[in-house]
Amino acid sequence: MQSATRSVPLPLRILGTGEYRPSRRIESTQFDQRWGKPEGWTRRHVGIDHRCFAGPDETASRMAAAAARDALARAGVAADELDAVVSVAGVMEQAIPCTAVLVHRELGLAGSGIPAFDVNATCLGFLVALDLVAAAMAAGRYRRVLLVAGEIASAGLDGSDEDTAALFGDGGAAVVLEAAAPGDDSALLATHMETFSEGAEFCRVRAGGTRLRVADDPAAFLAASRFEMSGRATYRLAAQKLPGFMRGLFQRAGVSVGDLACMIPHQASVKALDHLQRALRLPSGTLVRILETNGNQMAASIPLALHHAIETGRLRRGDLFAMVGSGAGLSFAGAVLRY
Fold it and tell me: Which Pfam family is an annotated match for this chain, by its short name (predicted)?
């Protein structure tokens, strides 16, 4: 268990954020019709009105690149002024090369030599990459870095599963980071991560790696390519471990929940968001929610909620805020920043 000692703040400024919404808007009433449910059943069950699914030409790298162009424009930064491109998606577009390379090419950087690599921590990839990049910036290795996530959750959903098929959405997110200049109060105050691998089988896609091989049993490989989740087991373990994790995060940052202008969570499910609200006794309006119109967008979820908070004015320069989430494993990650 990591000790929750006070962290040293790292100078970090969020220059710009961006979003890409896929072309196919999927209403929850479509799932009602598919499953023969009364109208409104799916919306009540998953807490989502609609979500977007990617079309055939909307690949993960293209969606990530579109979000990146949006973020770069808002930041006033050209793609060739970046020091690195990092993809944080939970599921890669293909096994090799990494997704960041494909985004790099989409951004016109093919001959630039700018490094491109992936950081995979399922739904927590953005927070883990944020931590690693901030440390690298503090060490002088990078000045400006682009984090991107293009997620196509719909590719792995079982359309007959009433618990998961309507829960997820696709999309692209991007955030441009820069080492904060002297005198700039923007900073990463603390990060914290905990993993409880007793939950390794609670959320999984068994195929796609090297353990299951399509040549050995094509039918078994196809079946294992679908997302599998034990929702109740995941919720029980997460609810048990969340309070201690949050205490550790706040202790490292030297803040309390009352100091925060807002909290930006992974949009895992309406049940998870409601539990977080109750467990932390968050004031009304503190928790940023986009689940109703986006669904669970995996690793794109947190940066998209961050984008929403900035665009709607809920997060302003100088504000203290936290980003938190859980991911398959089971892992928790969080960060406290001054925007």
Answer: ACP_syn_III_C
Contacts of residue 78, Cβ cutoff 8 Å, sequence gap at least 6:
72
Query: pLDDT tens digits, residue range 30-41?
Result: 999 999 999 999
**The pLDDT of residue 15 is above 80:** yes
The domains of the chain, with CATH numbers, are 10-178 (3.40.47.10), 187-338 (3.40.47.10)
pLDDT of 2 over the 80 cut: no
Sign of the C-alpha dihedral, residues 11, 147, 130, 277?
positive
Q: Which of 104, 266, 307, 308 is catalytic?
A: 266
Active site residue: 52, 203, 296, 307, which one? 296
Measured distance CA(73)–CA(268) in Å, rounded: 29
- Residue among 229, 231, 291, 293 nearest 264 (CA): 291
Q: pLDDT tens digits for 243-291?
A: 889 999 999 999 999 999 999 999 999 988 998 998 899 988 899 999 9
Residue burial 84-110, b: 16+ Cβ < 10 Å; e: rest:
bbbbbbbbbbeeeebbbbbbbebbebe
Residue 123 is among the residues annotated as catalytic for this protein: yes
Establish whether 266 is a catalytic residue: yes
